[in-house]
Amino acid sequence: MAPTMRQAQEEHAGRRHLQVACAIIERGGLVLAAQRSGSMSLPLKWEFPGGKIRQGERPAECLARELLEELGVIVSVGDPLPTTTHHYGDFTVTLHPFTCVIDSGEITLHEHAAISWLPPDRLAELDWAEADLPIIEKLGR
User: Fold this and answer.
1) Mind listing the pLDDT tens digit for each residue in 43-102?
2) Closest to 53 (Cα-Cα) out of 80, 32, 88, 90
């Protein structure tokens, strides 16, 4: 995934631009939310689980790898949703969300503090990382 001109400018200006794949995991009409640990950046904020896309890695591949590493589950990565970009003070995040289904494994928290399964219209009740808010808005409709 080649960087855009804006990403190259931000990197040059000292602002990191992270490409992150995230999972919208649904089960029984509920959506999985994961709370970041207190030692992570954006501590204790809620997010859709996932992680940074490595050089040469496709977003869907990243997501399958990250969900196995972070939650101990094997997923089927489904359809992509529209990407969203958010500018934090010292870095920028572009989220690549995908719908996902857990194929096997029980969720084990390796990096997160907690998880919650909520109906889409209640997701906004949590204290989310700002980059995830546009996705929540779309899901809550």
Assistant:
1) 899 999 999 999 999 999 999 999 999 999 999 999 999 999 999 989 999 999 999 999
2) 80
Q: Which domains does the chain have, with CATH numbers?
A: 15-139 (3.90.79.10)
H or E element, residue 48? none
Backbone angles phi, psi at 39, to 5 degrees: -95, -5
Give the count of alpha carbons within 13 A of 111, CB side only. Answer: 19
- pTM value is 0.86
pLDDT in the model for residue 13 = 57
Tokens standing for residue 106? 């029980």
Angle at 128 between CA 103 and CA 60, to 5 degrees: 35
In whole angstroms, what is the distance from residue 128 CA to residue 110 CA? 19
Residue 41 falls in which region: left (phi positive, over 0), alpha (psi -120 to 50) or beta:
beta
Output Rg (C-alpha) for the chain, integer angstroms.
15
Task: Please check the confidence at residue 131 and state whether its pLDDT lies above 90.
Answer: yes
Residue 23 has pLDDT above 60, yes or no: yes
Query: Strand 74-80 relative to strand 84-87: parallel, antiparallel, unpaired?
Result: unpaired
